Amino acid sequence: MNLDGQIALVTGASRGIGKRIAEALAEQGATVVGTARNTDPVHSWKTDSAVSERIIPLALDVTSRASCESVVEQVVNDHGSLGILVNNAGITRDGLLMSMEDDDFDAVINTNLRGAFWMMRFAARHMVRARKGRMINISSLTGVMGNPGQSNYAAAKGGLNAMTKSVAKELGKRGVTCNAIAPGFIETDMTDALPDSLKDNIRKVVPLQRFGTVDEVASLTCYLASPQAGYITGQVIEIDGGLHM
Fold first, then answer.
1. Smallest Cα–Cα separation from 168: which of 216, 230, 75?
2. How far apart are alpha carbons 46 and 28 in whole angstroms?
3. What is the count of structural domains for the chain?
4. Cβ contact 161:216 at 8 Å
């Protein structure tokens, strides 16, 4: 999965899955712009990375159209191209349907769905011109199966899955692929905070009897970004240990 010479942009790169994806792309040879609203955490972890010289922190607010456009243009101006876009930025504002605040619904849609839409739209300008590119959207199994207390999150991720397929059909003839990765339960600081009893119950219903790792999600992302995945597009690939079959 040689990505030498590729320029990648990863949103939500401050921690967890996004952090590991940014690092893994750099390990494969890409120059990676890792974005976050506050870049201090990106600066912090990238200093400890063996590939820190290929990781460039950049501030981005995905809920701002102007910020999305500005960052894409800056990446292209600074590096001459943009070959890989990974939309990973996302938030949760969980709540039951009947008690969910409008602001919590809007915040999740704006960050997880509208932000990805803006990033793909602005990146597409350059990828279409170059007649090549990889767009990879980090979705969630919740967008496929739904989950109680997450109607806003499920709507955003389900919309992201559908948008992935539409974008793939629009841009395929220009050599641009667009795929989504839908992780199930992955070991991150969010799942670490779950009670041990709940984690044990989750493992029992996962056929592989364990949580996934950020390395496994990052490896799949690197593959989809690579030349070897050139004939894969419009797919929502579940990485969930067999939880949803």
1. 230
2. 15
3. 1
4. no
Buried b (16+ CB within 10 A) or exposed e, 56-75: bbbebbbbeeebbebbbeeb
**Structural domain harbouring 221:** 7-239
In the block, tokens 């292209």 appear at 76
Does 223 qualify as catalytic in the annotation?
no
Residue range 88-97, pLDDT digits in tens? 999 999 999 9
Flag whether the pTM goes above 0.90: yes
Catalytic residue among 45, 105, 118, 153: 153
Asked if residue 2 belongs to a domain, the reply is no
Q: What is the CATH number of the domain that holds 190?
A: 3.40.50.720
Cβ contact 35:60 at 8 Å: yes
Alpha carbon distance 170, 167 (integer Å): 5
Residue 245 included in any domain:
no
And the tokens for 133? 């590119």
